[in-house]
Amino acid sequence: MPLDSRTLADDHFPLWAEEPPVPSEGSLVPGSQFHEEQWVMAAGMLARGSSFLYVARAMGCSRTTLWRAYYGSKDFRHRVWWERQALNREADLRLSSLRSLVVEQIERLVSSGDPSTVRWLADRLGILDGLAAQPGSTAGAAAADPAAGRLRSCAAVGRSMRRPLCRLPCRSLCGHRSRPGRRQRSRRHP
């Protein structure tokens, strides 16, 4: 149900809530035998990237008819453009909601003490690089001898978590890998 234009004369909706453009001649494709809803559907399909042939088959017309309608009606082309813009706005809204979900999940994993998430986050934020640059720190000594520093840090993480080290995400850092096909018991790093 359309809103009364007098009640919201000065209000401006956000871009995602805009109404589609009204055709200047009252119809997207004037003089067409097809209903307006079919042209709206065709504009949406073209905006999503469907081919002219596929859209023409869905409408029940020839590709030439659709082609002539597209290039002959400025309102139809404008509706296709508007549908593309609406799809882009929807995609932006979905991405922003996905970003917030990802942030919530990372916060939950970090607060629960998941070591692989903490290490990944520290690596992505560059926190480990900042520790290596500090003079007199054990991380600075580890930077001088990377293999020794990695093994020391893996052993420290393993002791603090009281888990077998072969289950830690540090496998890629210290070179410890279990042999394929053999089940490993709680072995320490070699």
From TrEMBL:
This is Helix-turn-helix domain-containing protein.
